[in-house]
Amino acid sequence: MFMRAGVNYEDTVFLFTDTQITKEEFLEDINNIAQLCKLHLCFCMSPVGEAFRRRCRMFPSLVNCCTIDWFTKWPPEALHSVALQCLQPLGNQEVIEKISNICVTMHQDVDEEIEFSCGLQKLYETYDVVGVMEAQVREMEPILARKAEEGIALVNRLKVEQKAADEVKQMVMKDEAEAKIKAAEVKEIADEAKADLALAMPAMEAAQEALKSLNKADINELKAFQKPPTLVRFVMEPVCILLGVKPDWDHTKSILKKLKAYLTHKDFNPDTVVKVSKVCRSMVLWVQAIDMYAKVFRVVEPKIIKHKEAAAILKSVMAVLRAKQKEVEEIEEKLAKMLDELRVRIHTQFTRV
After folding, report:
1. Distance set, CA 22 to CA 25, 26, 27, 37 (Å)
2. Which residues contact 242 (CB under 8 A, 6 or more apart)?
């Protein structure tokens, strides 16, 4: 065709219709031919449907390099007018009119028959496609049935695992509640013991500060007494008692009994003793602080022991709780994987269908 049109200068028309498009690649060649402009190209396409719009977008030369003529269905008046013009040689107007009407009717009947034939052809094609699809469905029925059974089994297994997970979660929630209660009890005991000890700490700290204020000269002053005053001797006796025995509770109780006579004496106070000896004043403060601390500790010690026991129990409970929480996490992870597997199966099954 190119030789005839381009070399021999022969008038050549290339007529191509959309019914001849068996492969979309054909349109690539048509697109290139339209760009060369060496042939008179006539391309007939139906504007009905998505195919025409898609092809115009994919192959722009069909629009840019062509003149588009839109042909619609002829109206009866136009058909009648053409028939009259063609039949004028007959001469008889009455005959011409009748034959023209017959021509219009025949043309319309042919159009309807063509449309009917096209529709019937589409029905046949659809029937063939449906037949192929039915055959494919029959082939897939065993596979789909097996997949459905596997899916049902997976769902049942998922229900069992979910039930087990819910039971474990309930146990963990119960253990968490108990752990919170136990933690609150431990905190309450610790706070109570801390508050009791706080009552004795100011006096103890004051006594320690008083002892820190003593220096070597103060101690030498005390040693210098050949015959110490009665109050000095009186103050040093409980100090010797405190420093002369083992620091266990049994000895502490015996010490407290021995100290009671000194602590309740009217002259055993810092203001009275300081008149005789500055050093002994600090000793009085220290003995009084030790006495107060011992009394408080006697109340606090059982609480401290109880706190240690409760803390040990709480530690054990928390260890068990963490193990169960980890078990719940593992079960939930397993359930998530099963759900993902189920979604994949459902998606694959519907995609194949």
Report:
1. 9, 8, 10, 24
2. 255, 259, 287, 290
Each residue's pLDDT expressed in tens, for the chain with a length of 353 residues:
777 777 787 888 888 888 888 888 888 888 888 877 667 888 888 877 788 888 888 888 888 888 888 877 788 888 888 888 888 888 788 888 888 888 888 888 887 887 777 777 878 888 888 888 778 777 777 776 777 777 777 777 777 777 777 777 787 778 777 777 777 777 777 777 677 667 666 766 666 666 566 566 665 665 666 676 677 677 667 666 665 644 444 544 455 466 666 767 788 787 888 887 777 777 777 777 767 666 666 666 676 677 677 777 777 777 777 777 787 777 778 777 777 777 776 666 555 54
| Cα 151 from Cα 346, distance rounded (Å) | 8
Residue 202 contacts by C-beta under 8 Å, 6 or more apart in sequence? none
Determine the 3-state secondary structure of 100 from DSSP: helix
Residue 102 parent element (H or E): helix 93-212
The pair of three-digit structure tokens given for residue 302, joined into one six-digit string? 């059982």
DSSP secondary structure, 103-161, as one string: HHHHHHHHHHHHHHHHHHHHHHHHHHHHHHHHHHHHHHHHHHHHHHHHHHHHHHHHHHH
Residue closest to 234 by CA, chosen among 206, 261, 207: 261
CA distance 99 to 101: 5
Choose among 81, 18, 73, 72: nearest CA to 50: 18
Give the burial class of 207: count Cβ atoms within 10 A of its Cβ; 0-12 exposed, 13-18 middle, 19 or more buried: buried
User: What angle (nearest 5°) sits at the alpha carbon of residue 323, between those of residues 177 and 321?
Assistant: 15
Whether 83 contacts 74, CB under 8 Å: no
Residue 325: alpha-carbon gap to chain centroid: 19
- H/E stretch holding 296 reads helix 278-352
Q: Any residues with CB less than 8 A from the CB of 207 and at least 6 apart, and which?
A: 282, 285, 286, 288, 289, 290
